[in-house]
Every structure is written in structure tokens, then in C-alpha cells.
Amino acid sequence: MKIVLVGAGRMGQEIARRLAEEGHDITVIDTDTDCLEEISTGVDAMVLYGNGADYTVLTEAGVGEADLLIAVTSDDSVNMLCCLTGKKLGVSNTVARVRTMEYFRQMVFLKDELGLSLVLNPEQAAASEISRILRFPSAAKVESFAKGRAEMVEFTLAPESPLCGLRLVKLRDKYASNLLICAVEHDGRVIIPKGDFVLSAGDVLHVVGPAAEMSAFFKSVGSYKRSVRDVMILGGGRISLYLGSALLDAGIRVRIIERSEEHCEIIKGFLPRAEILLGDGTNPKVLEEEGIRTTDAFVALTGSDQNNIITSMFAARSGAGKVITKVNRTSFQSIIDSMDLGSVFNPRNSASNLICRYVRAMQNSESSSQIETLYKLVGGKAEALEFRVSEGSKLCGVPLQELKLRENLLIGCIGRGGQIIIPSGQDTIEPGDSVIVVTCSAGLGKLEDILARGPGHE
């Protein structure tokens, strides 16, 4: 596909990298020569200097012949204008990054009026990711499928866990569990495990199954953490506003520490039920005075990765029940992996997941199975995808044991009529099902892609 991307900042760079890796023809527009240089040296993409909202610049980029225009500059108004101009030039599909809460609240109206195909709000997506983790604090990450009825949770196997040394084929019988371990990070490698795989201390497990059964499973293996009723948030940015709103609606106490008095007043206007605390949250004394040792969860959301990492380390050592850390720069990954920072997330990953899902759905718009959800796992080494099955799929009605699937791929679960099924070889896929697939093969666009190809398969 030919894609024009306006905005070469950190978000634009991540989206360009992901789309280029999937083989798309990318042209990136920006007025920052340094950012364009970074993309041209690190990503297989064309770059064009200029204002992405300018008719002439978009014409030069060939937007009229493009399949998709994505605008992710730091200015919401510019993004919407880019998309409006692109539509006038003939591009059919447009995506705008819209971060401001005032704009986002009227997004249904704006989306219709501007003809936007997708509205991208990285901060709101990040807040949703954090909310899922806080609902299930035993996990490092929680991904939601089948309209929340199925979840995939990530956690690291502690040396004292009764799961150590367990052969997977015995998991269901020993713990009466309707769950499936669908991916394991073991010694730096990602494994889609079979029944004979033996779990070891330090393995990072991805477990999928009905949301209602996750807590019981974690209790049975001794990894359960108490429910979160009190959350302390460091930093009063956009993610904090979206997160605070969601938590307050769920009846959770919210305290936000912000060092700017002016910004504290703005936050109070958006979140009148939250406790807004003026102070320097990077100061250990301030955190202790505000109750860091007794809070159920601490979420570091400042604009500084260094501050987030340091304060999260302090919170973890002070006894905060659950610690969540925002880290924007992937260059810190090797350091992060060696630290106990609880759950670590990057807002750009949530946004790029949404873009990749949308692009793959565009490519396979005529398919009888559409991508509903897409998540990257284990630093992008694996993917979890949810497909909605329509009439006409050649996979329907065939027992799973008769399907010749790709290597390093499994069907994690099937959502049908409000129920979540952990499938056996005798189960079948039927029209209307939600099918969750976990694979180490990137680029699946339709459910039929799970089948092996060629005489030797894959």
C-alpha cells in the first residue's frame, strides 16, 4: 500500500518503522529536518520537507494516488486540516491524531464532518492500557479481546511458583483451569509452546482465557495481588486526565501529584472528584508524606523517562502495591529489563498497534474474516490478533486438528455467543466467532493466513 505520513516526531517515527517493516510504500512529510534525517537513515521510507497541511506539498507527495493518509503532528488542528485537504485531493482513507480532550469529546461529530476513517488518541489508548493493568494488578500487562470477555495477561514466573517444572499438558488438570499459556519468553527467545514444554523460573508467560477465571488461576498459583482501590499518579499530563477519569468512574480513589500550580487548577477543572496535590513528586519526602508506602498503586506519567524510572524504583521499594511506569524511549529498554519497575509501557506502541490493525484490515477488506484487535507481544517478536469470522470462510466447520497451521502459531481461544472456548482438536470455527491467534509470524491480515503454505509449509 502507498501511505503518506505527516509528522516525523517520535510517534511518526514508530508508525513509519512498523509500516515499513510490513512492506508498505511510505512517504513522510515534516518541517523538522533532523527528524526527517532520522527517518531516512533508520527506516525504508521516502522523506519530504514541507508543511503537511499545504495543498502543494501533499500534491508533491502523491497523496491523490495514496491508499492512506496519516497525520500525527503535535497539533490536532493541523492533523485535521491535513486530512481534510487530503480528502479534497482524492485520498479515500485518512487517520488523524487527536489528543486534546475538548476535541476528542466531539470526535463523533468531527469524524463524520471531516470524513476521517480513524481517530488516533495515543494518550487515551495508553490510559485504557493502564486501566486494564490496574483492574488485574497480578499481571505486568493485560490485553483485552472479544469485547472484554477474554484477556491475555503477561507475568514472570517467580522461582517459588508451583508452576516451575510443570509440563503444560498437565496445566488444565492440575489447576482445573480453562486457560492457555500461548507464548513464553524463555532465555531471550519467544516460544509458542506445545504440551511437552516445561516451565522454568524467569519465563515470561502470556496466558489467555476468560476474564472471569484469571483471578482464580492467579490465586491458585500464589501470584494474586490485592485489588486496587487507591491510586497515586505522578504527573498531570493528558494520560493522567484520561486515566483519572476512568478510575474515578470505577469508584477508585485518585491522587495526582503535579508540580505546576497553574496546571493543578486545570486538572481540577477536568477531574473535580480527584485529589490534586501540588508538589515535586520526584522528591522522596513528598511521596512519603502523601502515602506512597500504603497506596494500592503508583503510576509514573511525567514527561521525563528518567524521573519515571527513578520514582517507580522508589515506589516499588517503599511497598506500593502495584507500580506502572511510562517510558517513551526504547533506548532505555536494556536498562529497564534489569530493573524492578513493575509494568512498563510505551504510549507509542498502543498507537502503532491501532494503525497496523487498521492498515491490515484495509488490505483484506474483501476477506471473510476481519481483524478486530492486534497487539505486539515480547517487544514485537510475536503478535496476538483477534479475527471476526463471517460466512464464507473456508476454515468454518473444519475440526482444528484437521487444519494444517503455520509453524509457531496457535489458536488461543474462540469467543462464541458470549462464551470463551479454549479449543481442543475437535472444536471448529464458526461464522460469528471471535478467534484469537498468537503467532511469531508477522503480517497476518486475515484468518486464512494461519494456514501453512506450500509443500513444506512454513
Write the layout of secondary structure elements.
Elements lengths: L1 E5 L3 H12 L3 E6 L2 H10 L3 E4 L5 H6 L7 E4 L4 H14 L3 E5 L3 H5 L1 H8 L3 E3 L1 H14 L5 E5 L4 E7 L14 H5 L4 E7 L2 E3 L12 E7 H10 L9 E5 L3 H12 L3 E6 L2 H10 L4 E4 L5 H6 L7 E4 L4 H14 L3 E5 L6 H5 L5 E3 L1 H17 L5 E9 L4 E8 L19 E8 L2 E3 L12 E6 L19
Parallel strand pairs: 1-2, 1-4, 2-3, 4-5, 5-6, 12-13, 12-15, 13-14, 15-16, 16-17
Antiparallel strand pairs: 7-8, 8-11, 9-10, 9-11, 18-19, 19-22, 20-21, 20-22
What does this molecule look like?
The chain is of the alpha/beta class and 458 residues long. Helices cover 32% and strands 26% of the residues. Helix 1 packs parallel to helix 15 and helix 7 crosses helix 15. The two termini are 24 Å apart.
Kindly summarize this structure in a few lines:
The protein has 458 residues and is α/β, with parallel strands linked by helices. It has 15 helices and 22 strands. Helix content is 32%, strand content 26%.
Number of helices: 15
- Mean pLDDT, rounded to whole units? 90
Please outline the major beta sheet. Answer: 6 strands, parallel
What is the general shape? globular
Round the Cα radius of gyration to an integer and report it: 23 Å
Question: How many beta-strand segments?
Answer: 22
- Poorly predicted runs of 5 or more residues: none
User: How far do the termini sit from each other?
Assistant: 24 Å
How do the strands line up in the largest sheet? 3-2-1-4-5-6
Helical percentage: 25-40%
Going by helix content, strand content and strand pairing, the class is alpha/beta
- Estimate the strand proportion: 25-35%
